[in-house]
Specification:
Layout (H helix, E strand, L loop, with lengths): L3 H27 L2 H14 L2 H8 L6 H43 L9 H5 L8 H25 L4 H6 L10 H31 L4 E5 L2 E2 L13 E3 L15 E4 L9 E4 L10 H7 E4 L3 H6 L3 H8 L1 H9 L18 H8 L4
Bound molecules: zinc ion.
């Protein structure tokens, strides 16, 4: 007996867990910021004009430039070891409890595979370990580039890294990296959760699965039309489809499409919606995303589609599923849409 409500509740808990995990994941990189700044200061304090010139050329034959680049590289190498430990230990625990909760919800006694087997499965094409390594290599390079760029433009390097108090440090490259880490972390959690679900449902012999997207204004036009679609197990769109994708697939059973789910008729996460507005924006529904969308106010539809797509929809030429390629394919850009349906300026 498959309990869809329990599976969807479990998925909601997974997303809440992802937020906490993301904080620790971000901190695991940000914990090295002081060491990066220290490496810069050491260079700055000892460098002569010729060393600054060599820095702009990234001339690693220059002793001080070489030492700076090496120091930053070492900081990232160490941070990536720490991050990988975090991923392995935390996500192993998560995988075990996630498996048990979902097995119970579908009446399975199937034993969990090892966490390392789940952690080896790709998420958006790359394993978690590879993602951490790529993140490290990528940001190592970007931070060095930012230092060189700031220095060559005569900006303060520490400020370029850390940002300014006036902008609440959002203008620093560390902040940009934190955002990227946050997106990766959320995707890791959703990815391992979906991957372990795939293994469980396949081992249980389920023939079909239902795709569920999230009913709010932030769900993208790739995922929204997939909501409530039924796929043969192992075929069709497998979430996460993109960074920060919040979708899930669960085994199909009779009544699955009648499952009652929460909706948020707003672009903001619930925590950012004033309490006084929540009653009218938040509720429960049995509709699919497309059905729910049809019943929203024009203002809400505009918020979801944006002006150009809304105009197109309003003319009646196109339905929600036609803003993206079939079966979770890419979102059509305005030029594609204009070529297909015309009338866009
Ligand atoms: Zn999605």
């Amino acid at each position: 007996m498959i309990n869809i409500d329990r599976l969807l509740l479990r998925h909601a808990l997974t997303q809440r867990y992802a937020l906490g995990f993301a904080e620790r994941f971000v901190e695991s990189w940000a914990g090295s910021d002081k060491a990066i700044i220290a490496a810069w200061r050491e260079f700055q304090d000892s460098a002569r004009k010729s060393d600054f010139d060599a820095l702009l050329m990234r001339d690693v034959k220059n002793k001080r430039v070489n030492a700076l680049i090496k120091a930053i590289g070492a900081v990232f190498d160490e941070a990536s070891i720490g991050t990988m430990k975090l991923v392995n230990s935390e996500l192993s625990d998560f995988i075990a409890s996630d498996w048990d909760a979902r097995a119970a919800a579908i009446g399975s006694t199937e034993k969990a595979p090892t966490a390392s087997a789940i952690l080896a499965m790709p998420i958006l094409g790359r394993s978690p370990e590879l993602q951490v390594r790529e993140f490290s290599d990528n940001w190592k390079k970007r931070i060095i580039s930012e230092i060189v760029a700031a220095q060559s433009n005569g900006r303060d390097v520490v400020q370029a890294l850390r940002g300014t108090a006036e902008q609440n440090y959002r203008d620093g490259i560390f902040h940009t990296r934190d955002n990227a880490a946050d997106a990766d972390a959320v995707n890791l959690v959703n990815g391992v959760s979906n991957n372990s679900g795939r293994v469980l449902y396949k081992e249980e012999g389920h023939k079909r699965e239902v795709y569920f997207a999230t009913l709010d204004h932030r769900t993208c036009l790739r995922c929204a039309p997939l909501d409530n679609k039924i796929f043969p197990t192992g075929e069709g769109a497998q979430p996460p489809l993109h960074p920060r994708c919040r979708c899930v697939r669960v085994p199909y059973s009779f009544g699955a499409l009648d499952a009652e789910r929460p909706f948020v008729d707003d672009k903001r996460p619930v925590k950012n919606i004033p309490k006084s507005e929540r009653a009218e924006k938040i509720g429960q529904t049995r509709y699919s995303y497309s059905e729910w969308f049809e019943r929203l106010s024009d203002k809400s539809k505009l918020s979801i589609l944006g002006q150009s797509r809304y105009d197109l929809w309003k003319k009646g030429d196109i339905d929600l599923g036609e803003f993206s390629a079939k079966n979770g394919g890419k979102i059509l850009n305005l030029k594609d849409l204009d070529d297909l349906y015309g009338g866009l300026d």
